[in-house]
Amino acid sequence: MKSRPRVRFLYGTAWKENETQRLTELALQQGFRGIDTANQRRHYHEAAVGQAISAAIARGFVTRDDLFLQTKFTFQRGQDHRLPYDPAAPVSIQVEQSFASSLKHLGTEVIDSYLMHGPSQRVGLAADDWAAWRAMEAIHDSGRAYLLGVSNVSLEQLQLLCREARVQPRFVQNRCYAVQSWDRRIREFCSAHEIVYQGFSLLTANREVLARPELIKIAKRHDRTVSQIAFRFTLDVGMLPLTGTNDADHMRADLDVLSFRLEPDEVEQIEQLAVR
Ligand SMILES: NC(=O)c1ccc[n+]([C@@H]2O[C@H](COP(=O)([O-])OP(=O)(O)OC[C@H]3O[C@@H](n4cnc5c(N)ncnc54)[C@H](OP(=O)(O)O)[C@@H]3O)[C@@H](O)[C@H]2O)c1
Questions:
Q1: By C-alpha distance, which of 85, 172, 92 is closest to 134?
Q2: What residue ranges in 108-187 does DSSP mark as E strands?
């Protein structure tokens, strides 16, 4: 396997509609090298992400090898009428069709990370989930996806997947709630199984915790914003954070968190914030 860039922050491309190309290009310009998307037209415009990537490459400020590209297979339940596959086809064929369409949208021959957007049911893994995972394993075997992962997954589902998967998941992408100790139980399982935990909704799902005076004090001490402290905290506990900011200043502020560290007692304090 070719060595891939080690990304420390992912730029998420959901909900940008007609602004997807401009904002993705702006994010690349500001220095993001990891891009998260999905072949789910309801929330993402994957083809526009691809156009941003081609434009950035053509303008010469990135090469394909600098980039970490991640996309997802989404079951029909999570889609609208704009499906990237034939809904009457077996799930294994749907995955292959969705993946082929992602390669086309993104103008690449290889995806760095291919995720199952979420299991088809809340508890356990159904036959369709296994059919999708086996098809993803075949894509990995063919060399068209370097790494596989799963999103919106419970600890129990992740354990099941790891027990039976031939190609192990290397990423988990979940909504990260501070009130659940920042998804601590899944993060612990991930670190024991060489899985990188990707957290999303880090700011939007944790507004109350982010307003706590302890956090404001830490932000003042580092001369950073509370949002920056939250993102830095996620890095210090080993997460790969996502941001989908639409604002160039916030893009810079988000990337700036790579340039400082929190003290261990501050990390501990933030981890415990919602528990008290
Ligand atoms: N797997 C899944 O099911 C799933 C679900 C949801 C999201 N995701 C992925 O995760 C990505 C991120 O989504 P998200 O839910 O985390 O939310 P988001 O869309 O990134 O929203 C983040 C919010 O935080 C603000 N923000 C960002 N940086 C800031 C800063 N430095 N200071 C102040 N405000 C800041 C943004 O406002 P401004 O725009 O004004 O900066 C925005 O309101 C998505 O684009 C998608 O790729 C995946």
A1: 92
A2: 111-116, 145-151, 171-175
Q: Is the pLDDT of residue 121 over 90?
A: yes
Is residue 129 located within the same domain as residue 264? no
Please, which residues have CB within 8 angstroms of residue 215's CB and are 6 or more apart in sequence?
209, 226, 229, 230, 270, 273
Query: Residue for token digits 């080993």?
Result: 238
What total number of domains does the chain contain? Answer: 2
Q: How far is the CA of 246 from the centre of ligand 1 (A)?
A: 8
Is residue 126 located within the same domain as residue 257? no
Instruction: Name the pLDDT band for 57 (thresholds 50, 70, 90).
Output: very high
Ligand 1 binding pocket includes 23 (Cβ within 6 Å): no
| pLDDT of res. 138 | 98
In a domain, 4, yes or no: no
Tell me what the mean pLDDT of segment 231-255 comes to.
Answer: 98
Percent of the chain at pLDDT above 90? 95
Q: Which domain holds residue 151?
A: 10-175
Residue finishing a domain among 159, 175, 191: 175
Mutate to test the pocket of ligand 1, among 72, 74, 150, 203 (most ligand atoms within 8 A of CB): 203
22, 172, 200: residue to mutate for ligand 1 pocket, most atoms within 8 A of CB: 200
For the segment 178-217, what is each residue's pLDDT rounded down to a tens digit?
999 999 999 999 999 999 999 999 999 999 999 999 999 9
Q: Is 11 in the pocket of ligand 1 (CB under 6 A)?
A: no
